[in-house]
Amino acid sequence: MVDNISSLPPKRLDVARNEATKSTDALRESRAAEASARTEDTKATSHSASNSLVDRAKAAAHEAPEIDRQKVDDIKLAIARGEFQVNPKAVAQAFVSMTLNATRA
Protein backbone atom coordinates (compact mmCIF):
# COMPACT_ATOMS: atom_id res chain seq x y z
CA MET A 1 0.00 0.00 0.00
CA VAL A 2 2.85 2.35 0.77
CA ASP A 3 4.32 1.53 -2.60
CA ASN A 4 1.16 2.84 -4.32
CA ILE A 5 1.47 6.21 -2.59
CA SER A 6 5.05 6.70 -3.68
CA SER A 7 4.11 5.91 -7.26
CA LEU A 8 1.80 8.96 -7.45
CA PRO A 9 3.47 11.98 -8.95
CA PRO A 10 4.12 14.69 -6.39
CA LYS A 11 1.81 17.68 -6.70
CA ARG A 12 3.52 20.98 -6.90
CA LEU A 13 2.72 23.29 -4.02
CA ASP A 14 2.20 26.35 -6.21
CA VAL A 15 -0.40 24.48 -8.31
CA ALA A 16 -2.26 23.40 -5.18
CA ARG A 17 -2.28 26.99 -3.88
CA ASN A 18 -3.48 28.27 -7.24
CA GLU A 19 -6.38 25.79 -7.26
CA ALA A 20 -7.29 26.72 -3.66
CA THR A 21 -7.21 30.42 -4.56
CA LYS A 22 -9.49 29.79 -7.54
CA SER A 23 -11.94 27.92 -5.30
CA THR A 24 -11.87 30.71 -2.71
CA ASP A 25 -12.35 33.38 -5.38
CA ALA A 26 -15.28 31.47 -6.88
CA LEU A 27 -16.87 31.14 -3.44
CA ARG A 28 -16.42 34.88 -2.79
CA GLU A 29 -17.95 35.75 -6.16
CA SER A 30 -20.89 33.45 -5.48
CA ARG A 31 -21.48 35.01 -2.06
CA ALA A 32 -21.19 38.52 -3.50
CA ALA A 33 -23.77 37.66 -6.17
CA GLU A 34 -26.13 36.26 -3.53
CA ALA A 35 -25.70 39.38 -1.38
CA SER A 36 -26.37 41.60 -4.38
CA ALA A 37 -29.54 39.68 -5.20
CA ARG A 38 -30.74 40.01 -1.59
CA THR A 39 -30.03 43.76 -1.70
CA GLU A 40 -32.06 44.13 -4.91
CA ASP A 41 -34.94 42.14 -3.37
CA THR A 42 -34.85 44.36 -0.29
CA LYS A 43 -34.87 47.50 -2.45
CA ALA A 44 -37.84 46.22 -4.45
CA THR A 45 -39.76 45.33 -1.28
CA SER A 46 -38.95 48.68 0.32
CA HIS A 47 -39.96 50.51 -2.86
CA SER A 48 -43.32 48.71 -3.06
CA ALA A 49 -43.97 49.36 0.65
CA SER A 50 -43.14 53.02 0.09
CA ASN A 51 -45.52 53.15 -2.87
CA SER A 52 -48.21 51.53 -0.78
CA LEU A 53 -47.77 54.15 1.93
CA VAL A 54 -47.89 56.94 -0.63
CA ASP A 55 -51.00 55.43 -2.20
CA ARG A 56 -52.69 55.21 1.19
CA ALA A 57 -51.77 58.81 1.98
CA LYS A 58 -53.17 59.98 -1.36
CA ALA A 59 -56.39 58.04 -0.79
CA ALA A 60 -56.76 59.52 2.70
CA ALA A 61 -56.21 63.02 1.33
CA HIS A 62 -58.89 62.50 -1.32
CA GLU A 63 -61.33 61.15 1.26
CA ALA A 64 -60.74 64.04 3.70
CA PRO A 65 -63.38 66.75 3.84
CA GLU A 66 -62.78 70.08 2.14
CA ILE A 67 -60.98 72.70 4.21
CA ASP A 68 -63.07 75.75 5.01
CA ARG A 69 -60.45 78.46 4.35
CA GLN A 70 -62.73 81.23 5.65
CA LYS A 71 -63.17 79.43 8.97
CA VAL A 72 -59.40 78.89 9.24
CA ASP A 73 -58.76 82.59 8.56
CA ASP A 74 -61.39 83.62 11.14
CA ILE A 75 -59.80 81.40 13.79
CA LYS A 76 -56.32 82.77 12.99
CA LEU A 77 -57.61 86.31 13.33
CA ALA A 78 -59.35 85.51 16.63
CA ILE A 79 -56.12 83.97 17.97
CA ALA A 80 -54.12 87.03 16.89
CA ARG A 81 -56.61 89.34 18.67
CA GLY A 82 -56.55 87.19 21.80
CA GLU A 83 -60.24 86.38 21.40
CA PHE A 84 -59.81 82.65 20.87
CA GLN A 85 -59.23 80.49 23.93
CA VAL A 86 -57.60 77.10 23.33
CA ASN A 87 -58.81 74.27 25.56
CA PRO A 88 -55.58 72.29 26.17
CA LYS A 89 -57.49 69.27 27.52
CA ALA A 90 -59.62 69.05 24.37
CA VAL A 91 -56.53 69.39 22.16
CA ALA A 92 -54.72 66.64 24.10
CA GLN A 93 -57.74 64.33 23.84
CA ALA A 94 -57.96 64.96 20.09
CA PHE A 95 -54.27 64.08 19.65
CA VAL A 96 -54.64 60.89 21.67
CA SER A 97 -57.70 59.94 19.65
CA MET A 98 -55.89 60.59 16.36
CA THR A 99 -52.90 58.56 17.49
CA LEU A 100 -55.06 55.62 18.57
CA ASN A 101 -56.98 55.67 15.30
CA ALA A 102 -53.74 55.84 13.28
CA THR A 103 -52.26 52.80 15.05
CA ARG A 104 -55.40 50.74 14.43
CA ALA A 105 -55.36 51.38 10.69
From TrEMBL:
<dbReference type="GO" id="GO:0044781">
    <property type="term" value="P:bacterial-type flagellum organization"/>
</dbReference>
<feature type="domain" description="Anti-sigma-28 factor FlgM C-terminal">
    <location>
        <begin position="54"/>
        <end position="94"/>
    </location>
</feature>
<dbReference type="GO" id="GO:0045892">
    <property type="term" value="P:negative regulation of DNA-templated transcription"/>
</dbReference>
<keyword id="KW-0804">Transcription</keyword>
<feature type="compositionally biased region" description="Basic and acidic residues">
    <location>
        <begin position="11"/>
        <end position="44"/>
    </location>
</feature>
<comment type="function">
    <text>Responsible for the coupling of flagellin expression to flagellar assembly by preventing expression of the flagellin genes when a component of the middle class of proteins is defective. It negatively regulates flagellar genes by inhibiting the activity of FliA by directly binding to FliA.</text>
</comment>
<dbReference type="InterPro" id="IPR035890">
    <property type="entry name" value="Anti-sigma-28_factor_FlgM_sf"/>
</dbReference>
<keyword id="KW-1005">Bacterial flagellum biogenesis</keyword>
<feature type="compositionally biased region" description="Basic and acidic residues">
    <location>
        <begin position="55"/>
        <end position="65"/>
    </location>
</feature>
<dbReference type="Pfam" id="PF04316">
    <property type="entry name" value="FlgM"/>
</dbReference>
<comment type="similarity">
    <text>Belongs to the FlgM family.</text>
</comment>
<dbReference type="InterPro" id="IPR031316">
    <property type="entry name" value="FlgM_C"/>
</dbReference>
<protein>
    <recommendedName>
        <fullName>Negative regulator of flagellin synthesis</fullName>
    </recommendedName>
</protein>
<keyword id="KW-0678">Repressor</keyword>
<keyword id="KW-0805">Transcription regulation</keyword>
<dbReference type="InterPro" id="IPR007412">
    <property type="entry name" value="FlgM"/>
</dbReference>
<feature type="region of interest" description="Disordered">
    <location>
        <begin position="1"/>
        <end position="65"/>
    </location>
</feature>
